[in-house]
Structure formats: structure tokens, C-alpha cells
Amino acid sequence: MLNKNSIHRPDRQLEKTLISLVYSVVAMSLGVLMLFIFPQYSIYLLILIFMATILSILLAISVLSASENALTYGGFANEILKSHDIIRQIDNNEGYPVIQNLPAKSFFGDDIVLEKIKNSLINEHQNLLNFQRLEHALQNLKSEKVSINLNIEDKSQWYEIWVRPIYLKKSDIFEGDFSLKKIIKETYFLWSLENITAQKNMEQIFENERKKLHDFIHNMPIGLYIANANYELEYVNETFAIQLGQQRESLIGKNLKDLILKDNGILNSQKPSYTGRTVFCNETNENSEMFVVQNNFKDDNKIKIRGLTVKDLQNDKTLLEKLNYGIDEIDWLFNLTPLGILFVDNKKQIVSFNQKASEILEQTEQELTQKTLHDFLQEPTLKLLENIFKQCKNDVNNSEINVIETRLKSDKIVKIHIAPRRRIHCEKTFLDGYTLYLSDTTEEKNLELKYAQAQKMQAMGQLAGGVAHDFNNLLTAMIGFCDLLLQRHGIGDPSFADLNQVRSNAHRAANLVRQLLAFSRKQPLKPKLIDVTESFIELNYLLKRTLGEQISLEFHHGTDLGYIRVDPVQFSQVIVNLVVNAKDAMNGKGTLKISTHTEKLTAPYQFGADTIAKGEFVVINVKDTGCGIAKENLNRIFEPFFSTKENVVGSGTGLGLATVYGIIRQTEGFIKVDSIVGKGTTFSIYLPRFETKDDEGENTISENQVSEQMPILTSSTNPKSQKMILGMNVLKLDRTFKPMSTPDNVKILFAEDEDSVRAFGVRALKKKGFNVVACNCAESAIELLERQEKFDLLVTDMVMPGLSGADLAKVAKKKLPNIKIILASGYSEEIARKELSGSDEFEFIAKPYSLGDLTQKVFNILNNEQKDE
Fold first, then answer.
1. 570-596 pLDDT per residue, tens
2. Which of 154, 193, 433, 557 is the most exposed place for a label (fewest CB within 10 A)?
3. Residue 576 is part of which domain span?
4. How far is Cα 275 from Cα 281, in angstroms, rounded to an integer?
């Protein structure tokens, strides 16, 4: 996202320069025009025209320079904003952000990058050195890449951090004379942060395994040595040194010929291998007969010799026991390592493997010995592996471990580490091949996808909630002003039908906004405890009518279901939406089964990024026999405006399942989906179970909260007295209608930041005889309260710039304890009550509200006050 501060924005600087150029050209044109009108002032006008021309030329040159900067800036902005995997941000030379992608905004917020890193830095020596390297790079305008361990949310996280300077004015840097001060002024810094915690953890595992292997080789009960073609020792292990009674360091560089008492062919360089008994001697001339296996090999195109020595096992029972123990240790280390290990030959035939490899590949030991990599890897991965094998074969000195991540034919995701080419002994022969280390990352990848999807849904919910809030303000003004016009253009007026049509469409738009609010979990709900079985009995007729005659509807209800706490209307909408989707999936024919039962979660359940507390739930399953949902769409079906029925006439808005998702989550439940293409889909709704209905009175809505069901602005509640035309209560708009008596000298403070809503509200209340004072923000309203002005009623919007409506209500209640308060919001009443810490000292009106809704709410609260007196 772009920083709004124009000081740091090259595109804003270009805009200012262009405006100046336009003014200069206009001035020059006016000068030319004045020259014809007032020729007597030609000298002065020519001077003015000349100066304007020079200024225009200079500004045009500046525009060209600024354009280059803006284009460069725009290119960086585009690259950064479309990146979602890596944290990326551009800072100016003062350290403030100019461009941020969403991960950077979430990670840094408004903090300066270096301060955030410093505050999160884990106090380790290498960490401090790497941080100093970053500081040095910024001071000297250099690129730097380091790995740093940070404490993020009380967890150790490794990040690869890369900072590099960016120069927008290249001509100032690379051409002509320049100063460091000028360079710094035109320099921006590009930050890139990538989370490499998983890679570091894997490196640590390999390092630990390498240390274990190194220690094992040095101390195994078998002597090992490596010599060059001249038999000079280049490596010996600790066991070989002990066998000869010497220090390991003293043996390096010695000639093997000096250690052998009698050559039995072991020193014959013409033979590629030797196996037999050999007598070694040491500095004290003590002889030691050992069994030796020796062979030649090439290292960097040079012939080298390696040997394995074992003392006479027949005469050394202690050594035999140690050898058997060492073999057991190797077997234990090989089979119980958390990584799968495969050794494959040049034809990709599996030669040896450990237990973990057979588990990952889901094969028994007998099955796996007959397999090749072609049986498990897909064709693109095999080609990539072939290229790596060729590279290792051509570069024998290459010690790099290649890493690839792929999906097996079994649909598992594995990470494969390919070690350099080596030779092993297998059934009296030697094989060249490659060692592959496998780690199953399927669960890790699935969790990453679920978490990313949950973050996406959360971001879309926040966006939907914000859009719905703005639309509610627009719709409030549209509906309100339509009501005011309908009071002047009554039935029979040529404009009445048109105005009524506008009002009806505004209400349709309000329904769409309510669906968006449902997805964002901010819609107004009226929850109460209901019996699930009774609710489905009431819905039975509606659902059958919805499905039609060719779809069979079956119910299977469990016993002792208890109660669920939901808004009955919204709960019905959830079931109807799922049934309509099932009908479309079955193409008019099939069976729909709705079943209910209870289920107890004994442990918290991870639902996306949310954790559902353990407890008892009522489970509602809606199962169809339709076409099913493709696997690639399962993670997207709850997104707003996503539909699998594209290019289908009458396919709807794509908000059906998004609405279901939002309502269920707002009701503290969750929903799962299982689907098999060609067989059908099952939606499972989990809602918290309540044992009894004792607390229902606390959950029911007061009479003032359902004013929309009452006649508006009437003193009579007799339904027969209402006039309904085109589905609208005409008494709401009757210009001669007399409402309940207006309390004398009632003064209302009306706080609303949206101009159109404020204008409508003030006008509507003044028409009813109230004294109304309007404010466009909470701060202005508080100033009036500070001046000791008396108000009987406060009507305020909940969401305003600066202080919120809830903050204003708290201040008003403190200044005027007897003041009545009405809070207006497109979000739910529960959110408003949370803002006021559960206080009941206010009334709530949901946006968008009509003229009748507003005046009825005001009359109700004021008349209740009079009755109390």
C-alpha cells in the first residue's frame, strides 16, 4: 500500500511539477492575449512572456526528470504490491515507509524497520554482528543480506533480510559531480524479509546428524584410512590410531609403507583392490595383525586409496562384541532417523532404504526392493532429478546438497535432499549412486494452505465489512430523502411510483449489504435459544416447495439435542441457502438428507486460523447426491462472489455460502464441507449446545429492538388502521398524520460524519418539532458538552473518524447522567454493547434506517422517559 505523505512520493512531485507547468503556460498565453489587447504595454508584456517561456522550459525539463522518477517508483510499487509471499517495503532516507505490501504492513505496522528488528532481536553474538552489518549497509549505501533470529510473538523465527539502496535520479549518481549528501537525499531502501525458519530447522537436523555420523565414524570399532597414490596418509579415524598405538594427528602425512611390516600385495598400485591379512607395526615395534579391505578410488581425477582394518576377530572376543554393537548402532541410527533415506543407482533403482523411507512411500520392505523412482515420482520431477544426477556426475568435486519439493504419485508432498554421487559396497560389488533424504511435508503444506486461506477469508471479511459500512451510509441517505420526498408527493402524484421504485431498490441493496455483513460477522443478530427439531418441522413445507417434486427430502433427527442459540430468521436463511445450493448441484433430481446429532469435542478444534473451544455441539448435516465440488474449489467456496456456476443465467450473486459462513461464525459455530465429485456433498454445521432454555429471557430482544414490525409514527397499533399500497405502509408517509405528542423543548445532539446522512437526520427530526444541533465528529460534540449545553437526547453514529460514537456516548453520559442515547450502526448491536462494556443505557438503530425508523425510535425513547416520570 502506498504512503499518503506526498513528501516521499515521486508521483506526487511529478503531479505538482505538471500543475506548475500548466500555470506557466496559461500565464504565457494570457501575456500573448494581452499583447494584442494592450499594445501600448508591449515591452512589459514581452518581458512577461519571455519570463513565462523560460519558466515553462525549465518546468518541462523538470517534468521529464520527475517522470523518470515516477516511472521507476511505479515499477517498484507494482512489483512490491503484487508480492504476497515475501515481506517487501521501500523506505525513504529517513526510515519511513513509502511502499508496503500487505505482509510488510502486518509485520512492521508503523514501526521503522531497523527499530522493529532491533526490538525483536534475540541476544546472540552472531545476531548482533549481522544487525551491525545492516546498520553499516544503511550508513554506507550498500547492499547487504543476512540471516537473523527474531522473537516474533514469543516464538523464535529465522528471517533472511536483504536491504539494498535504490536511486531514483540515476543522472545525479553516475554522471558528473555529486556529493554523498545529495546521493542520500535521492536514495530509497528496498527491504525484503523471508521467513526461513523451516529451512534453518532442517539445516539444524542435518548438522546434528552430520555430527553424530562424524563421531560414529571416528569411534566405530573398525579402523579407517585414506591415502594418496604415493601411500601418504591423508585421513585416519581414531580407531585406526588406537590399533597402531599412536596419536591420530601424528599418523597424518606418514607413509603406509612405513607402517606395514610385510607387504602381502597391499602396496601393489596395479591392483584396484586388496582383501587379506596384514601385519602392521608401530613406533615401539609391536606387531598387530589385522584384516584389511582396501580399494582404489578417484577424487578430483586423482587416484586415492582407502582401507578398512579389523583386528583378528577369531582371537579378539572383546573386539567382536564391539563390532556387533557398532553394527547394531548403525542399524539403529539408519532406521530410526526421522528422515527417509534411499540409495539409488544410476538407473534410479532403489538399492537400500531405511524404515522411514518405506513408511513415506507406503511400501513394505519386499515391495520397495523391486521398485524404482519411476514408480513414485511424476515425470517433471524425474526430469529434474535426471539433470541433477548429470550435474553431479560431471562435477565430482561438487559437495552441494540439492533440494527439491514435489508431489508423489500417491499425492503426498515430500522434500527431497539429494547428496553428491558416491560409491557403496553391495553384494561383493561396488555401485555408484546417489543418497536421497526424504521428509514428508504434506501436513505442513496443508496447514500452510489452510492458514493462508484463513488469512485471506479474514482480510476479505474486513474488506466486506468496510464496504458494507460505507454502503449503509449511502443507503440511509437514499432511503431517508426518498421518505421526505414521498411526504410531498403522495398517492396520485405522478412522481409517487418512481420515488417508491427508488426506495424499493434501495431496500434491495440493503439486503445485499446485509449479506456482506453476514460474511464479515458484523450484521445485527437477534439470537435466542431454539429447539432444532421444532425449527426443521416449521421449515419442512418451505424446503419441500424449494426442492420441487423430483427431489426427495429426508430428515433424521438425533435424540436429546438440547437447544442452540441462534437468530431464527438467519438460521432459516442458512438452511435455505444450503438447500438451494444442493438443488442446483442435483440438477432437479436426487435425494437430500438432513440429519442432526450431538458431538462432544474433547480438545480444541483448529478451524483455519481460529481455535474452537472444546465442548458439546449440535451437528446439522446437509447431504446431497449432486455433482460434487472439485478439489481445487473446496478452499474457495466460502469466498464472497465466488461461484462455480459462471456464465449461467440466474446463478445469483455468489454470496450464498459466504452468508452461511459469516452467520455460523458469528453464532460461535463453524462449518465443514466434504465432497466427492460425481457422488455428492455434505455440509456439516457445528453449533454450541445448550442443555436447558432457562436463560432464554436474557437472550430475547426487547420490544424497542423490533420497531420495524410496528406501525411507524402512529399512536395506535391496530393492524387494521394501516394502509398498505405497493407493499408499503402509507401511514409512514402521510403528511397530515399526527404522531404522539412531542415533548416540550426537547433538544437533540445529532453526531454523524457522513454529510448526507446528517442532513437527512437533522431535517427529519426538525420536521417533527425537535430542536436539533448537528456535529460532523465526536470531538465537535464534546466541545458543545464542555460548554455546559443541555441536551435531552444524543443520536450518534458508531464509526466516525477520531473518537467513536461509543467514546462520545461515554463522555455524554458522564457530563449529562440523564441524557438518552441512540447509537446508529450497520454492524450488530452486540458489537456496540462490547464497545460500551455491556452497558444497557442506550438504544440501538440499525443502518440503513428510514424516516419512520428514526422518528419512531426517537419518540419511543422520549415517551418512555415521560412515562417513567
1. 888 888 889 888 888 888 789 999 999
2. 154
3. 528-699
4. 19
Question: Which strand (E) or helix (H) includes residue 808?
Answer: helix 805-815
Strand-pair category, 771-775 with 747-751:
parallel
pLDDT of 34 strictly over 60: yes
With respect to residue 618, please indicate whether it lies within any of the assigned structural domains. Answer: yes
Give the pairing of strands 302-311 and 287-299.
antiparallel
Q: With CA atoms as reference, report the closest residue to 326 among 213, 411, 486, 418.
A: 213
CB 641 within 8 A of CB 653: yes
CA–CA distances in Å: residue 51 to residues 28, 39, 48, 56, 62: 8, 18, 5, 9, 16
Q: What is the enclosing helix (H) or strand (E) of 304?
A: strand 302-311
Length of the chain measured in residues: 869
DSSP 551: E
- All three cell numbers of 514, joined, read 446485509
| Helix, coil or strand: residue 809 | helix
Read off the pLDDT of residues 248-259 as tens digits, 9 standing for 90 and up.
Answer: 888 888 888 888
Write the CB contacts of 312 (distance below 8 Å, at least 6 apart in sequence): 277, 289, 290, 291
Q: Please, what's the b/e burial string for 60-71 (b: 16 or more CB within 10 A of its CB; e: otherwise)?
A: eebbebbebbbe
Average pLDDT over residues 601-623: 81
Q: Are 526 and 698 in contact (CB under 8 A)?
A: no
The neighbour count for residue 476, using CB atoms within 10 Å, is 29
Alpha helix locations (H) across 82-101?
none
CA pair distance 88, 91, nearest whole angstrom = 10
Provide the b/e sequence for 170-187 (b: ≥16 CB within 10 Å): eebbeeeeeeeeebeebb
In the predicted model, what is the mean pLDDT of residues 396-416? 79
Q: Is the dihedral of CA 95, 97, 99, 103 positive or negative?
A: positive
In this structure, the strands spanning 302-311 and 97-100 are unpaired
pLDDT by residue (tens digit) across 549-562? 888 999 998 888 88
Predicted TM-score (pTM) of this structure: 0.36
Same domain, 757 and 820: yes
Q: How far apart (Å, rounded) are the C-alpha atoms in residues 581 and 578?
A: 5
State residue 321 phi and psi, 5-degree precision. -65, -40
Backbone angles phi, psi at 434, to 5 degrees: -135, 145
Instruction: Tell me if 595 sits within 8 A of 658, measured CB to CB.
Output: no
Of 226, 288, 296, nearest to 262 by C-alpha is: 288
Sheet containing 793-797, strands listed edge to edge, beginning at the edge strand earlier in sequence:
771-775, 747-751, 793-797, 820-825, 843-846
CATH number at 653 reads 3.30.565.10
For residues 413 and 293, state if they share a domain: no
CATH number assigned to the domain comprising residue 765: 3.40.50.2300
Strand partners, 294: 274, 307
